[in-house]
Amino acid sequence: MAHPMSTAQRFEAGDVWLADCHSHPELVWKAWHAGTLAEIESGALWLIAESTVTQGMPAAARIREEQRGPVLMDPYANVAWWLVPLDAAEELADVRQLHVRHAGWTLRCPPTGREVESMQWLWDPDGTGHLTDLAVLAAAFGPGGYRRPAEAPA
């Protein structure tokens, strides 16, 4: 299903949301205008669940579009960072392939829709604050992958 906003509007909304996740949004904008990564601490609105790209991509393919939250990756370093809800540490404790970073951990972010220093968004923030549901993420990393409940519409 196509997103009702244009790509440029979606990128702008995602950038505004990301910048607003920082206590000083102007520093984020300054970094991006200089063509560098912006450092944004986790813990105010989201935490980071870290995986390898090689394990994360098959899991990502199991998650339906409307259930996807932002995922940043560095394919050269084989690292993916999933922006997840604040209760992720407890909820994802049994998922071996994911390491939940503590609040205050710094994520070095490019703006949406651009690659900077090999960092790129697999799924861009859309500006709404939507994050990947933890149960869906855990199931996607499981051996059978995420399966919709039987009563859910196709």
Radius of gyration: 15 Å
Count of DSSP E strands?
7
Structural class: alpha+beta
Overall geometry: globular
How far apart, in Å, are the first and last alpha carbons?
13 Å
Q: How confident overall, as mean pLDDT? A: 90
Helix content: 25-40%
Approximate strand percentage? 15-25%
Largest sheet: number of strands, sense, barrel closure? 5 strands, antiparallel
**Helical stretch tally:** 5
Q: Low-confidence stretches at least 5 residues in length (pLDDT < 50)?
A: none
What is the helix/strand order? HHEEHEEHEEEH
Sequence of strands across the biggest β-sheet: 5-2-4-3-7
Give your account of this protein's structure.
By secondary structure, the protein is of the alpha+beta class. The chain has five helices and seven strands. The strands form two sheets. It has a five-stranded antiparallel beta sheet with strand order 5-2-4-3-7. A two-stranded antiparallel sheet has the order 1-6.
